[in-house]
Every structure is written in C-alpha cells, then in structure tokens.
C-alpha cells in the first residue's frame, strides 16, 4: 500500500492507495505554525486502520522550505566568491559576500591563482563576524573545483566549526549567479530542514511505519528523505509538482493537457505535453533569487475563487469590472463580505457548495452597480475569470514555443501544441473548467479524486535523476555536473583518446547514471533513463584537431511508478 | 501540407513551359485560390533541407501564387521607452564549412560557456529571442543567387539571416532599445551576385536586414559601420550606388589582408560618392588607434548623416590574438567601441580566436550594449598598456582621417562633378575572387544615370569555376526608384530572357517587392 501526503498552504491532503486504486482520502487544515502536526494528522487519518507493515511507501510534499525562505527564517551564510574576469561582482545583490582573487576559465584552466594570505584574512573576518556557515563558489568551479577545495581546507584550519557548502557540489550547470543563490539557499535552510526530517522520522517510528519514506521534488521526482537533506532546496514548489504528477496519473497516457488548479487567491497552471510534464527551461526563482533548481514550468496567476469583484466608474459613464488580485476572506455565499467568482458560479448553478440566497444577494449588488441583469453579470464574471486563465495558458504555450534554440535542428523543429484536455485539479471552482475548456477548444476533465489529485501525485510519482557528463579529451578529464568530481579519463574504458566516439561518450554517461541511480537506491528506474542532449566538438589548435569535447545530458524523467493503474477512461 | 490533385496540376501547369508574361497572369489568378496562410506554410517547408527535389519545384511554384498583396509599410515605433537589449545567440552548433575550418561548430562554444556562466541571459536588461528562418524572398531582395537561392542559402544561412530579421522587428516594434545578433554563419563578404562562398560568406545578413526593414517599415537612411578586421567588401558592393546607405568600414590595410580592398579611393558610385568611407588601418593598430578613428571620423560623419538606424557589422577579429589577422584590439576596446558607437543593432561577423578572444569580447559587447558595467571583462593575459601605437602609424591614421573628412565634406560636389562625366549609363568592370569556393568572376555593372532617382542597376556576370562557366544577367530596381526606371528595367528583363548567352536572368524589383529568376535552359521562371 502507498501513502501520499501533500502539505499545502491551506489544506493537507492524503491518500492511501491499494492495488493501484485509491482506497481512502483525507483533508485536514494546515496549521501554518506546525506543518508536522498537519502532516501527521493527515497520515493518521488515512492509515489508522492499516497494519503498518503493509505500507510499502510513504511520499510527502511540503512547503516547509518555501515557507522558511518566504518568512526569512533562514540562517546567515557568508558567501566566498571567486568571480574572475567578467561581470563586475559589485553588481550582484547577494548579501554577505566576500570576493577573493583567483580565476578559472571555461575549460577549467587556472588563469589567476588564489592568494592564500587574502583567503586567511577573509576567513578570519568571516569568523569574527560570527558566521557559522559559508558557501564557497568559484566561476567555472564545475570545470575545475581546486580553488573551492583549497578555500575549504583553509576554512577547516582557521574556522573549524563553520559549515561549508561548495558551489560545484550544488550544481554543475553553467550560471555562476544561479549557483551562488542555490548554494546560499541550501546552506541557509539545511539545518532547519534536517530538524523537520528528523521529526517526521520520529513520528513514523512511533507508528511503527518502516516503509521507505520519500519527499517530492520540484521536478516531480521522489527522493529518499535521508538523501534529501543534501538537497533541501530541491523540495521547493513540490505542491504544484504533486498536482501535475497527479493530473498525469488521472488522465489518459500520452495526451497534451493543461492542469488548472484554482485556489482561493491564485490559480496554478502546468502543462503536460504528449504525456510529459513540461519542465521550466531554466531553474526556479526562489526568495527573489534565480536558482538552478529543476522545476516544472508552473505559472501562478492572481485570480481565484475568492478574488474580490469590483466595479469601477470610468469616464463617459462607462463601467469596468475587475477581478482580484486580492482576497477579502471567503466568498459571500460562504459567509464572506465581498462578491467573488464563487458567488457567480453558485448563482449560475455551476457548483454545489455555498448558500444560494447569499450568492444571489452578492450578484444583485454587483449587477446594480454595473447596470446589467443578474444573470448577465454572473456570466460576465465567470467569462472574465475564464478568459484571464485562458490568456495565461496561451501565454505559457507561446513562451514554450519561443524558447531560444541554439542548433539548426532545434529551429527547424516545429513547436506547436494545443491542449486536448483542460484538467481541473484541487478542490476549487469546478464550474470554471468547462468555460476555460470551451475557450481553448479542449475537453474539460475533472478526474475522479480531483480534489486530492496532489496527494495522488505524491503517492505515485517515481524518482527522477539527471546526469550531465562533460568530457574534455585534450585535458584528459571528465566531470559529472551533479557530482562535482573531476575524474581522469584513464579510469574509463576509452582507448585512444583522439578517437573517442559520441556513442562511447553516451555509454559512459549511461554507466555513470546507473551507478548514480544505485547510490540513490533507485536502480530499478535506471532503465527509464533517456538521453536529452548529446553533442561533440572538435578542439582545434592552429589547423589540427587536438582533442574533443563531449556533452551528454541524461535524465530519468518524471513519471509514475508501475504499481499505479492508470484509468484510461478518466 | 495537403495539396489537392487539381491544385497540384494547376501549380505544375503554371510552372514549366509558360512564358513569363503568362506566368504573371497565372499568378494573379492563383492569388485568390490559395489562402495566404497556406502559402506561408509552404515557404517554411520549402526551406527545410530534407525536402526532396521534386517537391521543391512544386513549392517554388506555389510561392509564386503566394505573393502577398502589396502592403503599406508599418511605421517604426518610438523607442525612447524601450529598456532592454535584444539578443539572439545562434551558435549553429551543428554547422561547419569543414571540420578544421575556422568557421566550424566549436566557434562560439566557449562564448556560450562564458555568457551562460556569467548568467547574462538572466539579466533584466537582456531579452533573449528565438531565431527563425528568413524567407527566400528576403534573400532575393538582395542577391542574385546562382543557380538558385537554395544552393547559396542553406538552412543555417537562412537562420542567421532570419535571426537578424527577428531582432529588426523587435527593434522596430520598440520591444528593445538595441539588439545584438550573435550568430553564424557570417555574411559581410557576400555581394549582390552569389556564385558561391567567399570569405566564409554566402549571403549578406546586414544587407538582407536593411532591405527588409526598408520594405517593411518604410525607413530610408541607414548607416552600416563595419568593424570587422577584413574589409566589408560585400556590403560595400551591395550599397555602392545607394546614397541612402552610408557604409563605413575600418579594417586592416587591404595590402596586407584578405580581401585586398577597402582603400580610401573607394568612395561609392557616381550618385553616392562619399557614402562609402574606408579606413585602412596599419597592422598592429591597438585600441587607441581604433578609438581615435571612431572619435575623429566615424562619429562626426554619423552625426552629420543623421541615419534613422545605425548597424554594426561586428567582427571580432581585430583582437590581438586572432589567428587570421594582425591587429591589437582588446575586449575592453571592443566594449568601449560599442558603447561609443551605440549601434541600434550589431551583427556578428568574423572573429576566430575562439578561446582567447571571443568569450571575453562578446561578454564585453553584451554588457556595453545593455548599459552595464564591463570594467571587469578582460582576457587572461591582458595587461593594460601592453600595446602602444607606433608614432608613424598614428600619423598615417591622422592623414586618412583628414582625407576622408574632406571627402565627406565635399561629397555633394564630388557627385555633381562625377555625374556630369557620364551620359545615360555608367559602366564599370570588376573581377571578384571567391577564396573559399575558388571561383573567378568577371562583372560588368551598369547604372542608369537617372535624373529622378538613383537609377536601376544591371549586372552581367561571368563565373569561372574550373572548367565550369556560368553567365548570368541581373537587373535591380531600387526601392525608391522612379516609375520610369522601374518600367525600363522590367522591359530590360523581358528582353534579356531570350538572350542566348545567359543561363539565368534575374529581376529584382524592390519597388514592387517582386523577385524573378529565369532559367533559360528549362525556360522556367521562379517568382519569389
């Protein structure tokens, strides 16, 4: 049996799945101050009568990191930056930065050595300023980590208690500022996140639950909870990721869908293209900083079931109706004070919840302000909200089509897709889905268990894994971006380095991915790995080829565990 | 795309065997038959490399019927509020002239690493755009491609040119304040007639951009400043007789470097004298010398000319580490040059020090265009003050600047005197060498000395490629030509079609935005 729990901002949802079918569900209010309580409460609600030994897997998604960052409850981190030539580091907006001398180039060749005296002085300053955490990030540190490692050594000698984060271990992708932000946030949240994980483990222990426990990442993949302490920031935005995987689980295979999760204040959108959730082309933005965290392309717009409807007087006697962006408590028909889209939906009989008399009352007030009939007014509200959401969906598709292309084949590839389904997930405003689908000329789909789709997503998500291999045969080394180690090519099966072929490079990537999957305890998914991109460049010096550069990117994409039985007739 | 059988037959009928005048008639009928959208789609398909040959013919013919109705140009938007720098980075990682050729896949690889690692694409001051394919008619607006456009403009060329057009549109719509097309393959050595590749170029990206913007947005006066180390002979040739396009090129002295031209006496055709300004630089010229030329000559002339748009053919091979040239320009120098020149749009040309220069030069240029601090951009081995200009070179430059300022000041008098020397036509003979493709071309160019406009141009071109000889004839009607010149030119085209000496005859009517190529062997005419 599988358990999935999504700790959201308003409610915590849980499901129990038996033999690939939803067996029971639960919904409890989230206590903002104590996410752990909410999580445990929801867990107990679905697992109460189940012998703990029958549980095979527990997966949860949580807003804990997102909340820590939003509320500023993070720890101070000293940033030791080795920027080298390029953008003036004075233009960065990172707090507590200390820039030091030293530089690597794009091939990982040292172009400027470190200054040991300066480093010791900087470390001393950091110690005296009371920092107990530091992140060391060098530009092109992923191509040669020796500067970061040397600074780490000096920290160990001069400031031994300091907890250290190294840029090349956080991400091997190109983008120094994003690597700084990701390292900084990882360091700033790790301890509190670790405490949270300990508490969860304790709670599960008390309930004799010995099943493996996973946490959902922003890219829709699961990560063993112990392992997740290494990567705390990857757990941000796991709520929308849970909803997206849930929608994937609840719709037919291989289709193109837009996932619409209408909440009280906001509506979250995500895309599934031909059965694959769309990842953002770049990492997520977190606490005002762009990061390297891989996440689904999710768009949040400031309109929801409880958005306040207002009528404004424009010049020349015309009137304009606005929706949101704020929420002033619940909808009028649910006991609130203002007219909302929910009242319009209730008035038109498109939803079941709410008091019909109060809905009429609310619409009447707005209709008289607007000078139109009540039915007309309610329709205008529903149409307006549906249009705002539809516009955002179209914009998402447009942005996806307009993503930059760096190769001839990418430009030639026709990126054109339109949704076949508009899938409503979450509890809110079901009546709107049909309107949006009509505007997008797609099928409205409200799957069974849509209100706990997020928890189902958590329960049935499979692990994801990426591996970016960079080989430089001239320098006789390779590196895996995710691991940060720089390894000599003599450890590989390559014979003559001048004659390495792309398929051999790809084979090395596959072998490394298998090993990495083993480390993560997810070997059984290694066969799902696919090559995302692979290319080779000749390094030419003068007029002869002196080496080759290979870049191979592989991934185990987001998907569903085989235990889940997808319903083809959702 | 689905083609009904009937339509296919129509299309084929329109094609081979008809005389051009009949073709014209067919075209008018066809226009009502085929939806513009469908025509557009066929164009995209036509540029795909995998399109089989047989299909290509049909598609080409279809395009004939897809001519858009003549549209009034839209006006460029006011750019005062625009804040961003538009950027297309198209490194064409899957295209090379040959594996060890300087123009190969790897050329912008380290530049990619540097600008991505710097996070430049994330900056709020930068807007990254997606490349697109230029259409065949965009190429035909500038070139006579032999034997046809497909042979000269392969897919990567169409994307490089198309990238310029995307940014040109963004600029005209005021989405961006300026733009940088960091693209390859380059184009500034490609001339009006394209028999093959010369100086790594097949089609001229800047010229295609200029004619596109003039047609679409109705702008007229444009300045092109070519800062590549090689003389921009292709761009110069294309606009040599156009008084509305100011072409300024500074480059390593032609006596010491390919293509061996760009001397100060190359000042433009009779009616455009002084609108071509060449500044040959002594080998070894450092930042100081180039910035001197910029301050004392280029900027004053630009100010005087008052162009609606300034384009920069931004070659990066003046760099002190470039393997193909001998100059001493630095990344800081490039950034400063860009900041001072402040072009509306820069288009990458050459630059082959792919590791030691390009990553730093491009970072510097992008930061400078976006108005950001570039003071920390420097090559690993660069030391301030490492290159000093020789006194003798400085004096040479002063003389060149003085001479060119004089030419610029007297340009209208020079035109008057020159025009008086010629009758109804001005003729000149030229030889053009294609280094990459080893072709020797002989040309006779004729300009109608029209009192009302710049006059139409004809080119009789004879190319020797080993034992293969090709002779073509092309007629070009300028966008702002008078109606008399246009009629005369079109008549000339009709007359040349039956001339036995030519394999291909071209009509480039920029006024009408209509482009024709006629194969005298197959008697087939293609209209773009």
UniProtKB/TrEMBL annotation, chain A:
Residue ranges of domain Hydantoinase A/oxoprolinase in the record: 179-464
GO cellular component, one term: cytosol
Molecular function GO labels: 5-oxoprolinase (ATP-hydrolyzing) activity
BP-aspect Gene Ontology terms: glutathione metabolic process
Chain ranges of the Hydantoinase/oxoprolinase N-terminal domain: 3-157
Entry protein name: Hydantoinase
Species of provenance: Methanosarcina spelaei
From TrEMBL, chain B:
GO MF annotation list: histone deacetylase activity
Coiled coil start-end: none
Basic and acidic residues composition bias: residue spans: 22-48
Top-level taxonomic group: Archaea
UniProt domain Histone deacetylase: residue ranges: 157-356
GO terms classed as biological process: epigenetic regulation of gene expression
Segments traversing the membrane: none
Pfam families per record: Hist_deacetyl
Segments for region (Disordered): 1-56
Annotated Gene3D superfamilies: Histone deacetylase domain
CDD domains: HDAC_classII
Protein name as it appears in the record: Histone deacetylase
UniProt organism field: Methanosarcina spelaei
The organism's taxonomic lineage, starting at the top: Archaea, Methanobacteriati, Methanobacteriota, Stenosarchaea group, Methanomicrobia
């Amino acid at each position: 049996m599988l358990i999935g729990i999504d700790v959201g901002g308003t409610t915590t949802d849980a499901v129990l799945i038996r033999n690939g079918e939803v067996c029971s569900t639960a919904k409890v209010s989230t206590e903002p101050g104590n996410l752990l309580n909410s999580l445990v409460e929801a867990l107990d609600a679905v697992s109460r009568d189940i012998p703990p030994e029958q549980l095979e897997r527990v997966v949860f998604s949580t807003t804990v990191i997102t909340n820590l960052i939003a509320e500023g409850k993070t720890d101070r981190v000293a940033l030791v930056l080795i920027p080298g030539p390029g953008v003036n580091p004075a233009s960065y907006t990172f707090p507590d930065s200390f820039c030091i001398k030293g530089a690597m180039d794009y091939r990982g060749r040292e172009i400027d050595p470190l200054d040991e005296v300066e480093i010791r002085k900087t470390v001393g300053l950091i110690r005296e300023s009371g920092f107990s955490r530091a992140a060391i990030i060098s530009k092109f540190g992923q191509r040669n980590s020796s500067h970061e490692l040397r600074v780490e050594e000096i920290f160990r000698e001069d400031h031994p208690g300091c907890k250290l984060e190294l840029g090349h271990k956080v991400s091997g992708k190109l983008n120094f500022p994003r690597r700084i932000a990701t390292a900084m946030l990882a360091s700033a949240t790790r301890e509190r996140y670790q405490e949270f994980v300990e508490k969860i483990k304790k709670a599960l222990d008390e309930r004799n639950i010995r099943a493996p426990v996973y946490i959902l990442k922003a890219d829709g993949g699961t990560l063993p909870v112990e392992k997740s302490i290494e990567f705390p920031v990857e757990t941000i935005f796991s709520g929308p990721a849970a909803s997206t995987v849930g929608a994937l689980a609840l719709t037919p295979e291989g289709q193109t869908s837009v996932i619409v999760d209408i909440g009280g204040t906001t509506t979250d959108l995500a895309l599934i293209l031909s059965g694959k959730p769309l990842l953002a082309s770049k990492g997520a933005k977190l606490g005002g900083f762009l990061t390297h965290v891989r996440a689904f392309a999710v768009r949040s717009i400031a309109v929801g079931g409880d958005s306040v409807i207002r009528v404004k007087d424009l010049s020349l006697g015309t009137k304009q109706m606005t929706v949101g962006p704020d929420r002033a408590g619940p909808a009028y028909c649910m006991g609130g004070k203002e007219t909302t889209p929910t009242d319009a939906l209730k008035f038109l009989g498109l939803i079941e919840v709410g008091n019909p008399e109060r809905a009429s009352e609310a619409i009447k007030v707005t209709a008289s302000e607007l000078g139109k009939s009540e039915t007309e007014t309610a329709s205008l509200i529903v149409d307006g909200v549906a249009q705002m959401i539809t516009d955002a969906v179209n914009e998402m598709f447009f942005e996806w089509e307009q993503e930059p292309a760096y190769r001839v084949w990418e430009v030639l590839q026709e990126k054109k897709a339109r949704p076949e389904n508009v899938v409503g997930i979450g509890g809110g405003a079901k009546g709107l889905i049909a309107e949006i689908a009509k505007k997008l000329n797609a099928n409205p789909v409200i799957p069974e268990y849509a209100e706990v789709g997020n928890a189902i997503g958590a329960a049935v998500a499979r692990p994801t894994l990426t591996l970016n291999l960079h080989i430089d045969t001239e320098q006789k080394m390779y590196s895996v971006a995710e691991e940060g180690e720089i390894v000599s090519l003599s450890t590989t099966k390559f014979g003559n380095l001048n004659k390495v072929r792309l398929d051999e490079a790809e084979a090395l990537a596959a072998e490394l991915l298998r090993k990495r999957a083993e480390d993560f305890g997810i070997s059984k998914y290694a066969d799902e790995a696919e090559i995302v991109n692979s290319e080779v460049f000749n390094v030419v010096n003068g007029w002869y080829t002196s080496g080759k550069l290979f870049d191979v990117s592989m991934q185990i994409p987001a998907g569903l565990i085989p235990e889940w039985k997808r319903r083809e007739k959702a | 795309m689905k083609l009904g059988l009937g339509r296919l037959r129509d299309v084929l009928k329109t094609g081979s065997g008809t005389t051009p005048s009949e073709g014209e008639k067919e075209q008018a009928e066809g226009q009502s038959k085929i939806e513009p959208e469908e025509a557009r789609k066929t164009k995209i398909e036509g540029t795909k490399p995998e399109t089989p040959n047989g299909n290509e013919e049909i598609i080409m013919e279809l395009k004939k019927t897809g001519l858009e109705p003549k549209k009034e140009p839209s006006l460029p938007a006011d750019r005062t509020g625009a804040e961003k720098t538009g950027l297309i980075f198209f490194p064409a990682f899957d295209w090379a002239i040959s594996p060890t050729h300087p123009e190969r896949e790897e050329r912008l690889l380290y530049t990619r690493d540097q600008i991505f690692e710097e996070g430049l694409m994330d900056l709020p001051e930068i807007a990254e755009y997606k490349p697109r394919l230029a259409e065949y008619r965009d190429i035909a607006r500038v070139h006579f491609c032999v034997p046809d456009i497909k042979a000269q403009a392969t897919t990567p060329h169409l994307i490089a040119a198309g990238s310029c057009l995307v940014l040109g549109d963004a600029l005209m719509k005021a989405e961006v304040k300026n733009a940088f097309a960091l693209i390859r393959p380059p184009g500034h050595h490609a001339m009006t007639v394209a028999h093959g590749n010369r100086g790594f170029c097949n089609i001229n990206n800047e010229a295609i951009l200029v004619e596109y913007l003039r047609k679409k947005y109705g702008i007229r006066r444009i300045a092109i400043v070519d800062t590549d180390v090689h003389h921009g002979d292709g761009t110069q040739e294309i606009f040599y007789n156009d008084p509305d396009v100011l072409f300024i090129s500074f480059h390593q002295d032609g006596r010491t470097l390919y293509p061996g031209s760009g001397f100060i006496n190359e000042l433009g055709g009779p009616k455009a004298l002084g609108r071509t300004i060449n500044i040959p630089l002594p080998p070894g010229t450092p930042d100081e010398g180039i910035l001197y030329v910029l301050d004392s000559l280029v900027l004053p002339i630009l100010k005087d000319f008052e162009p609606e748009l300034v384009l920069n053919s931004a070659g990066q091979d003046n760099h002190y580490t470039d393997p193909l040239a001998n100059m001493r320009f630095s990344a800081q120098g490039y950034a400063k040059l860009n900041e001072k020149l402040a072009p509306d749009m820069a288009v990458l040309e050459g630059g082959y020090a792919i590791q030691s220069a390009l990553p730093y030069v491009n970072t510097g240029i992008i930061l400078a265009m976006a108005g950001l601090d570039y003071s920390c951009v420097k090559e690993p081995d660069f030391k301030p003050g490492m290159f000093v200009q020789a006194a003798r070179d400085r004096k040479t430059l002063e003389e060149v600047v003085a001479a060119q300022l004089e030419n610029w000041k007297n340009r209208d008098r020079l035109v008057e005197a020159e025009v008086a020397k010629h009758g109804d036509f001005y003729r000149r003979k030229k030889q053009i060498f294609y280094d990459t493709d080893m072709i020797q071309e002989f040309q006779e160019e004729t300009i109608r000395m029209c009192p009302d406009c710049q006059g139409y141009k004809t080119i009789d071109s004879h190319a020797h490629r080993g034992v293969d000889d090709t002779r073509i004839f092309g007629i070009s009607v300028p966008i702002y030509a008078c109606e008399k010149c246009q009629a005369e030119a079109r008549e000339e085209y009709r007359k040349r079609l039956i001339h036995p000496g030519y394999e291909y005859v071209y009509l480039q009517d920029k006024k009408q935005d209509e482009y024709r190529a006629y194969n005298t062997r197959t008697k087939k005419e293609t209209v773009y």
